[in-house]
Each structure stands twice: as C-alpha cells, then as structure tokens.
C-alpha cells in the first residue's frame, strides 16, 4: 500500500514538473518575442524649418471714430420752416440743412433799420450844428452813441436770423433726420448726425511696455469682419499722454484713408501696429506644437538606432520656446535649428524615439494670413 502511494505521489510530481517546465518555456518565449517586438512606424507629415524675418507687431481691438463727428442741433428755438437735406447723403461744409421761421425777427430787423436811419440822420444833423457851434460836443457824442446802438441792434437781429439757418459745420455724411416740417425746436434739440468719414480714426489700447516703441508714424494695419472682410493701412498719429491706472494700457490713435466709407464710427476692428525692427526666427505651423504644462515641444525627424544597432527613421522630442503667432504660423524663438525636419501633423500619437513614416501628400495649414471659407 505504501509503495502504491509513493508511486502515485511520484507520478503527480512528475506531471506537475512537466507542466511547470512547459509554462516556463512559454513565458520565456513570450518575453523574448516582446523584447524583440517593434511597433509599426506612425505616418506623419513634416516640414523643413526655415529662418524668416518676422515683423514685431502688437495686436489689439480698436474702435472707429470720426475725425469730426457731431449731432447738429438747433442753436435757437423756432418752428421748422424748410428742410434742405436728405438722410444719409454727403454734404459740404456750410450747406443749409434747416431753416427756422424768422418772420418775427425780420420784422424786428426792419424796425431796427428804421431806428438806425433816424440815428444816422440825427448824427448828420448834430455834426453840422456842431461845426456851427450851435450844439455842444456832448450832444454830438450822444448822437454818435445812438447811431452805434442802432447799428448794433441791426447786427444782433441779423445774427439771430442767420443762426436760425442751420448749416453743416464741416463736410461729411449725414445720418437719419430727427426733425419734421413744422416741428417746434427748442435750443439744443438734435437735427441730424454728421460724421466726417475720410480720413477716419481708429483708437486702440496697447500695454504700457510697448509705449517706448509706439511712436507717431508707426504703420498700422486695420481689418474688419465682413461680409466682405476689408483691410486698411494707416499710421499712428497720436499717443495718449496718460496711462490708464486700472488696465496699465495707453490709448493710441491711428488715421486711415477711408474713401469708400467702409469704416463707420463705432465699428469694432482688429488693429495691428507694426513696430520697427524685424527679428529673425524659425516659423512652424501651429499643428506641429505639442502644448504641455511642463513645456511646449516639437518632434524632429532624424536617423536613429535601435538597441540592436539597426538604423531607422524616428522622432526626437525637443523642448521649444514660442514667440508670437500669425495665422497658421507660430514663431520658434529657440529649440529648433534651420534645416531640421519637424513633424507637422500626428504629434499626439508620438513618443520620444518612436519610428515614423513620412507622408507629405496632404499638409496642414501653413499660411500667415489664412482666410477660412466659413469665417
């Protein structure tokens, strides 16, 4: 019985040993296969880094303002007798816009002119009598004063009549009429907006750090969303002498030609001031940048060797310092040398040392001034 039990125990130990040996062989084979496994190359697109002259610019959101812009209003009260303009039309400086009823003032002027005629006659008579010694110098002076007062009265009434003819103070484009024929206007009541549209101002704010380089004469590009989008060029004509204590920004005013009146006061526009002194940088598509909290990186394609010494095309991760962005391009201040082959798409599926396959049949956007169809 004991021999039988020992025999069975030996058989079990032998079977377990055989199973353990087989499993150990399988594990060793899997480990060997895993260590020699190479993932297939990732398909990427690339571009060759080139040095470019990069303008130094400051971008801001600006507001269009008129060089001259007012709401023409009534100077004196009166009834609207005639309207001599149409809404939205251009007018020249001095053009008549509104005439108010001046019948009462004209009657007053006639009476003042009659008093002036009498004063002129009295002064002429007093002058003759003074030469004959009949009247004193005081009487002649009194006659002169009466004549002067009569002249002033006529001039005052004539000025009142003139002020009731409302004229355009400068050339520009009228807005929508705000008065009607026969309407009573009090002093200061609005008549019509008037804006001078060519040239025109664009006001925008820049950080105080740029104040040293933001001088009168600096070129400014202005663009507005359409449809259709429009672009203008002008120059800085004024820099505010006061910095905003809350934002630490300074107001800048640019002047632009606006012959077709596409820019109107109150519009929001994009303003870009082109600062003097261009810098030389490497520009890459924004799709080539892998943004991360610990630092921004790109992948550079170059020849590499695996642990066995075999050569392959791989991607090396490189930390970069970024500059400004322009359209699809971003400036690389440091980290990429000219001539390097940089991955432009597929960066999110790469790791340092990963094998890659370059396929440049389709390239991502690489335009400093893109114009999307659905913008």
Q: Please, could you describe this protein's structure?
A:
By secondary structure, the protein is α+β, with helices and mostly antiparallel strands. The chain has 4 domains: 93 residues, conserved putative lor/sdh protein from methanococcus maripaludis s2 fold (Beta Barrel); 90 residues, Beta Barrel (Elongation Factor Tu (Ef-tu), domain 3); 47 residues, no CATH class; 62 residues, Helix Hairpins. The strands form 4 sheets. It has a 6-stranded antiparallel beta barrel. Strands 17-16-20-1-21 form a 5-stranded mixed sheet, with no helix packed on it. The protein has a 4-stranded antiparallel sheet with strand order 3-10-8-5, with no helix packed on it. Helix 2 runs antiparallel to helix 3.
Give the helices and strands, then pairings:
Elements: H1 2-36, E1 42-48, E2 51-66, E3 69-73, E4 78-83, E5 90-91, E6 96-100, H2 103-132, H3 137-163, E7 165-167, E8 172-174, E9 184-185, E10 190-195, E11 200-207, E12 219-224, E13 230-243, E14 249-256, E15 268-285, E16 297-305, E17 311-319, E18 321-326, E19 329-334, E20 341-345, E21 356-358
Parallel strand pairs: 1-21
Antiparallel strand pairs: 1-20, 2-11, 2-15, 3-10, 4-6, 4-9, 5-8, 6-7, 8-10, 11-14, 12-13, 12-15, 13-14, 15-19, 16-17, 16-20, 18-19
